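tool_call: predict_structure(chain=1)
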Amino acid sequence: MNRRNIDIPWAALVLIVINVVVFFYMEINGSTEDGEYLVGMGALLDEAVINDHEYYRLVTHMFLHIGEAHLFNNMISLLVLGYTTERVLGHIRFVILYFLSGILAGAATIMYNLYIVHEPGLSAGASGAIFGLMGALLVMVIRINKGRHTTAIPRYIVYLALTLYSGFMDETISGSAHLGGFIAGILLYLVMMPPGKEKKNIVI
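tool_result:
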């Protein structure tokens, strides 16, 4: 098989296409900045999941975005992070990690809103799943660069710390989803990829 075909992040590209198609479909039929419309399309509404058992929202909210900037930022992140993580994990494990991270990030958001700040909320976006990729990438960076003289590990840790911090400081961003997805990504990667299984020729 051609090496170039192996390195193409097909799963990440398919996810990006789905997100973009959903966004334009919603814009044609309504407004992605309309909260009521978002709820009708499957956004993560805490009380609907807990009280009405609408668990499908834990998945559907990952494909909804609030405005063009929200979509653009998440899709760029998915493309960049997806390229490396999918090369290491392979297509199937990448998809599993992405969806489970997004679902667990949604669950973390619900728990935080209802049981810590006691303020039910509405959320949408792929950032929880994307932070799962960031968590997985942290483990990759540490493992792949073990024993190498490189600044990759501290640089990536600083980047992650600043990104997570900005999520909690900005009231329009769900910091709990970012943190929940990040932790989920770390744990899922550790389960999927035992030490030493990464490709030795990959440089991060």
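agent: DSSP finds ten helices and two strands in the chain. Proceeding to next step.
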